[in-house]
Amino acid sequence: MTAIVTRDFEVASAPSAVTGVSTESSEYAAEVVNASLSYGDNQVLSDVSLRVGAHEIVALIGRSGSGKSTLLRLLAGLSQTESGNVRTAGYPAVSFQEPRLFPWRTVLANVAFGLVREKVGKAAARERARQTLAEVGLTDKAGAWPAQLSGGQAQRVSLARALVARPRLLLLDEPFGALDALTRRTMHDLLITLWRDNGFGALLVTHDVDEALRLADRVVVLAGGRIVEDISVSRPRDPHAHDDPDSEIPRLRAELLAALGVADVAR
C-alpha cells in the first residue's frame, strides 16, 4: 500500500483513502498517521502516529537507529512510507546538523535560495533575505562567504535560509549538535525568539534530553521504530524551570532517560 502525502491541509479536503481522516483542518503543522516503513527485513518505523501543533515545538529523541531521522525525512518529503498518511501544512523547511551552505554563494545568496519554490523576483528575494538575516543577527555578514563564518554563524545562516519562505513547519535534524556549549545555548535562545516571532510548528530531532526539555512543549521518545513515550512539559521554555528544585524537570528527565534505557547519573 502506498502512503498518501499531503503538503497543505487546506488543499486536500476529502478523507484520506488510507486512514479515513479528513485533511481539511489547519490545526496542525504536521500529522503522521499509522506510518510504517521497512528496508528489507529491517522494520524502521512501525505504525507511528504523531502530531505537531501549528504553534508547537515537539522534540523527538531516541537512540541511534531508532527511526528519528527517517520520520523527519518522511515529513520533509525525502522518503515515502509503505502505509499510513503524512500531512504537512505547506512545504516544510529543514535545518540540518551541518549548515550545508553553498560555498560559491554569498551569505545573502544562500538565504535567498530558500525562496526557490516561491514566485519571487530577484530584488524581492534579496530584500526578504536581508530581512531574515536581520532576524538572526547577521546583517553585517550578507556579503561574506560561508568559509568566513564561524560554526555558530553558519548555523544561523542555515536557519535564515529555512525561515525566509515563512514555513508553517520547521524540521530540525540535530542542528546544534556540533556546536560548543555556549554557542548552543545562544542558538537555543535564538530558536525560541524566531519561533515566537514567526509562529511556526517545529519538530526537533535531538539526542540531548536536556535540550529537548529546554525547548519543547512535548518530548516524544522513539524506540525500535515505535513511539514509546509522549511527555508534555508544563513549563516549556521557562528559563527558571531547570534551576527550580520543585519543578518537574528532574522527574521528566528521569522518565525520558529510563525510556531510553539510560541511568540518570545526576540523581
Assess the beta-strand content as a share of residues.
15-25%
SS element count, helices: 7
* Radius of gyration based on Cα positions: 19 Å
Could you say which structural class the secondary elements and strand pairing correspond to?
Answer: alpha/beta
Number of strands: 10
CATH homologous superfamily name of the largest domain? P-loop containing nucleotide triphosphate hydrolases
| Order of helix and strand elements from N to C terminus | EEEEHEEHHHEHEHEEH
Count of separate structural domains: 2
The CATH topology of the largest domain is given as Rossmann fold
Word description of this protein:
The chain has 267 residues and is of the alpha/beta class. The chain has 2 domains: 4-92 and 204-259, P-loop containing nucleotide triphosphate hydrolases (Rossmann fold, 3-Layer(aba) Sandwich); 101-166, no CATH class. The protein is 29% helix and 24% strand. The chain has helices at residues 68-76, 107-112, 122-135, 151-163, 181-198, 209-215, 249-259, and strands at 4-6, 28-39, 42-53, 57-61, 83-88, 93-96, 169-173, 201-205, 218-223, 226-232. Strands 6-7-8-4-9-10 form a 6-stranded mixed beta sheet, with helices on both faces. A 4-stranded mixed beta sheet has the order 1-5-2-3, covered by helices on one side. Strand 7, helix 5 (181-198) and strand 8 (201-205) form a beta-alpha-beta unit. Helix 3 packs across helix 4.
